[in-house]
Amino acid sequence: MPRSEHDVLIVGGGVAGLTLALHAAGSRRVTLVRPASDDQSASRWAQGGIAAVLSPQDDFSAHIADTLVAGAGLCDEGAVRFTVEQGPSAIEWLLSLGVPFTRDPDPASLYPYHLTREGGHGARRIIHAEDATGRAVLDTLMANTLAHPDITIRDDLTAIGLLADSRGQCRGARCLASHGEATELLAADTILATGGASGLYRHTTSPNPASGEGMLMAAELGAELMNLEFQQFHPTCLYDPEGSPFLISEAVRGEGGHLLNAQGERFMPALDPRAELAPRDIVARAIDAEMQRTGSPHVWLDIRHLGEHAIRHHFPTIHSHCLGRGLDIPQQPIPVVPAAHYSCGGIATNLDGASTVPHLYAIGEAACTGLHGANRMASNSLLECLVFARSCAACLAETPPPLEAPLAEWQPGRQTVDLEQVRRWRLTMRDIMTHRVAIVRRDQGLEAAAHELGELSAEVGKMVAESVPSAPLASLWHALRLARMSVNAARNRRESRGLHFNPDCPQPARHPRPSRLHLSDLEQAGKDR
Predict the structure, then answer these.
(1) I need a labelling partner for 159 at 20 to 30 A (CA). Which of 72, 144, 290, 469 fits?
(2) How many CB atoms lie within 10 A of CB 203?
(3) How far is Cα 44 from Cα 207, in angstroms, rounded to an integer?
(4) Distance in angstroms (rounded) separating the CA atoms of residues 388 and 20
(5) Helices (H) and strands (E) in the chain, counts
(6) Which stretch of 20-24, 193-197, 398-402, 431-435 has the lowest confidence by average pLDDT?
């Protein structure tokens, strides 16, 4: 199997991966493995913006307090404070690169860029580029990355596993080339910026969501995972059974949008004093309950009262996209449903992005830093990408260790992969997770999910052992085991908190703790079955 040596290896090219590459390249040589099409990155689909204390009328303590409330008692306060206090400098860095954030047209404004408000925030602190912030930031970062002489981009490779040496240290990644050949990239330090696990579910807010592949690859090396039971469902994804997923930004509600039930009545004011601007877990559960009560496949998000000029000004991308699907949103409400959106759990890291495996780091949605707790607050995600990528780069600036060769080469099977069977298995996995482990979970459903996923895992594992390398099969195998770990985490949390709501144990625990998981626990459970 071909091998090549690298200094810093980054797997994933969204906002987190590109930010790290640009900062690390000042002192290290960087190889970035990313999809040929960056539309596969969740970063591109981020609409709302980036939360940061930028207005003189705002302050760090308020942003910290709002984040802690949204996290439902499971945030790491040190991580929250670190993230919030690093926010303004991260935004200044993006501005220095030329990100075209939307300016405030009011000459009397205390801050030159327009700041909007989203759910859970007590102030306007979301800086944005119209309603396509992710695309604007990603395009700017990519242009700077392509121009940097110390960054090599490999868009012809897909990582399917990590390499370890005799001391259990990470030493790079095993990849597949576009034509199927396996190759090993040896690296002094490896960073996973591979995204979350929304792809475990049937309905998501992005067309090509990650399914936790990076998380499971880290777990294979012994890395600790955390809080996998906290999967965020965005309250407002466009309801269009025949079309591709499309997120309706939380900023739409931040600017005054109302949620209406099938009878055209607002229902959020009666449930929470923050109404449509309550944290996402509360709004998503309310929508789910309203849909079940009325038997409707969706609810409505109404912004007609804002007027056509304001709608076109604040939400040009959403307006144009909806119009292309036959919805004239200044004249009619938008049908919306909750959809899997963001993983609050992931690879447990410290403030430098370091995992529990030496020389393996994780940043962005693949990581669990303690910032989000049991529920992520709107627009804290891109902030986390920026802040932790920058802190990780500072850590990597130190002298790299000598490169020790990984253990013996991998010996895959020889059977040809049945890609249609892989597709069917993936749909089965997504259906199980959607029906049993979604916005509301019950003991009986979680028990059934554990059993069904265990049986499916036995089938897929046999093909993995016997088959030639295949990116789709490797992705499914990672996703399936992560789904089983997520179910186990949900079964073990005997309370309802944040994004984990189980009517069989509805009361929150007095002293909540993060869930900490290892792949070895799942493997042992399989032997005990």
Answers:
(1) 144
(2) 17
(3) 11
(4) 8
(5) 14, 18
(6) 398-402
First to last CA, the chain: 36
- Segments of 139-206 assigned E as strands: 151-154, 157-164, 170-177, 182-192
pLDDT tens for each residue of 242-281: 888 888 988 899 899 999 999 999 999 999 999 999 988 8
Comparing CA positions, the residue from 497, 501, 482 lying closest to residue 75 is 497
Query: Where does 419-528 sit in CATH, by number?
Result: 1.20.58.100
Domain range 3-230+344-396, CATH class = alpha beta
Whole-angstrom distance, CA of residue 103 vs CA of residue 96:
15
Q: Where are the alpha helices (DSSP H) in 355-470?
A: 380-396, 419-436, 443-466
CA gap 456, 1 in Å, rounded: 31
pLDDT of 67 > 90? The answer is: yes
Closest CA to 223 of 174, 170, 158: 170
Q: What is the DSSP string of 242-303?
A: TS---B--THHHHTT-EEE-TTS-B-STTT-TTGGGS-HHHHHHHHHHHHHHHT-S-EEEE-
Q: Which fold has domain 233-340?
A: Flavocytochrome C3; Chain A, domain 1 (3.90.700)
Q: Indicate the pTM of the whole model.
A: 0.92
> Could you give the C-alpha distances from 177 to 235, 347, 358, in angstroms and in order?
38, 26, 27
User: Could you give the CA distance from residue 67 to residue 313 in angstroms, rounded to a whole number?
Assistant: 29
Look at the block and give the residue holding tokens 């990590």: 162
Q: What angle do CA 501, 504, 506 make, to 5 degrees?
A: 50
- Catalytic residue numbers, as ranges: 280
Q: 454-459: long-range contacts (C-beta < 8 A, 24 or more apart)?
A: 454/484, 454/526, 454/529, 456/425, 456/428, 456/429, 456/432, 456/480, 457/481, 457/484, 457/526, 459/425
Q: Tell me how far apart the alpha carbons of residues 429 and 472 are, in angstroms, rounded to a whole number.
A: 14
Q: Is 529 exposed, middle or buried (0-12, 13-18, 19+ CB in 10 A)?
A: exposed
Domain residue spans of the chain: 3-230+344-396, 233-340, 419-528
| Average pLDDT over the chain, rounded to an integer | 92
**What pLDDT is attached to residue 412?**
64
- Token digits of residue 308: 């056509």
